[in-house]
Amino acid sequence: MLSVPSAAATVAPENEGTSSGQRPIRTGTRRKLWFFVVLSAVAGIASARLLGKHEPLSSDVRSGSPGYRATSTGKNQHWQKKAITVYLDDSLKHLGPNADDAVMQAFGQWVSSDPRLPDLSFDTGKTSAAPKQDGKSTVSFARITAPGHEHDVAITVTYSNDKTGEILEADVILNSLYPMGLLTAKGRAAGAKSDDKHDDDKHSAADESSDCQNRYDTQNVVTHEAGHFFGLGEDMVERQATMFLSINQCETHKRVLALSDTMAITTLYKQTEDPEEAKAGARACSFGGAPQTGGAFWVSSAIFGVCWLRRRRAR
Questions:
Q1: Do 295 and 99 meet the contact criterion of CB atoms below 8 Å apart?
Q2: Which residue has better confidence, 185 or 121?
Q3: Is residue 67 part of a domain?
Q4: What is the count of structural domains for the chain?
Q5: Between 99-111 and 218-229, two packed helices, what is the crossing angle to 10 degrees?
Q6: What does DSSP say about strands 154-160 and 137-142: parallel, antiparallel, or unpaired?
Q7: Which CATH number is 129's domain given?
């Protein structure tokens, strides 16, 4: 934007005489003043035209719902694969013997929310705790060394096709700088129903774990990061949403998706769905055991009580 400093000049009207204590303004001075007046007017017109030619701006922040993670070309990040393997790094064992189950539960919340999301399988094979593009989407518990994120509770590093937005790999790292564990959920995360319809608009002590010990709940944190894994950004408004931008110690309510979370993920994958894929119809649940050949396994309904992760296309 062109900017011209404002100036003020007081000039005596031409039809008034000049008092004895005043000196007449010279013609050259008057011309200079008019020159600056004209210049200011031209600058104002030019500025107005420049403002009128501004390209419309867009924002990823949506009131009451998560934004979408986008590539540098503006494409929303999303998975196009129909089946993804998530690798559980050995470092998760430091979070407790049931840490793997907590991670699977966290991802299961999202997969069960919309049939367009890819099927998930989990593998405990050889992995790296540090994020790197190695063809394996890994969840690990380690110190975060990414510049500017060393003190984040957790991060999700996504590798995607810049032109299409297709996610090729995503690594979730829980920061071992902070105490984490498997907490006893209370409130909404434990299935309790509230009698106050406004409870979702405020933080409640009922959402805090009784055995917290100033720790972060593993499942609570991973459920938030799994939203990033599938392509969602932060929610700047809805404090009780899983994708709300901050996370607290003792908190467990993010284990359960809010309406804004499910609406956002449904909108994202509906927009990016292949038309031919949509014609094939919804995928159905397939029950079974959890074969562990070669270290890989599918999570069965026995873990979740519902068919969250293992879903195959209806034939």
A1: no
A2: 121
A3: no
A4: 1
A5: 40
A6: unpaired
A7: 3.40.390.10
